[in-house]
Amino acid sequence: MADVAVRPGLTRDTIAGMAWVLLRLRGCMAPGELLEELRRVGVEVGRNRLTRVLLEYNGRLYKRVKEGSTVRYCAVEEV
Fold first, then answer.
1. Which domain of life is it from (predicted)?
2. % of the chain beyond a pLDDT of 70
């Protein structure tokens, strides 16, 4: 995946959209894994902000899946 230069101050919608694309491409991920992937492609976002975005868009863009004691997020197929 190409590096993306993203300016600070991203909106929640932008972060949510980028996270959704990564989840569609790479499958379900834990929040920490998703944070690493976002940073790898050039999106600097804090853990707390990502968690708030995931919770806010849960059910619309993502579904929260609990596997044992691990929480993972998966992209919703139809948006």
1. Archaea
2. 87
CB atoms < 10 A from the CB of 18, how many?
21
What size, in residues, is the chain? Answer: 79
Task: Dump the DSSP string for 22-51.
Answer: HHHHH--B-HHHHHHHHHHTT----HHHHH
pLDDT attached to residue 16: 93
* Structural domains in the chain plus CATH codes: 12-75 (1.10.10)
Nearest CA among 76, 70, 61 for reference residue 30: 70
pTM of the model: 0.81
CB atoms under 10 Å from CB of 51, counted, come to: 13
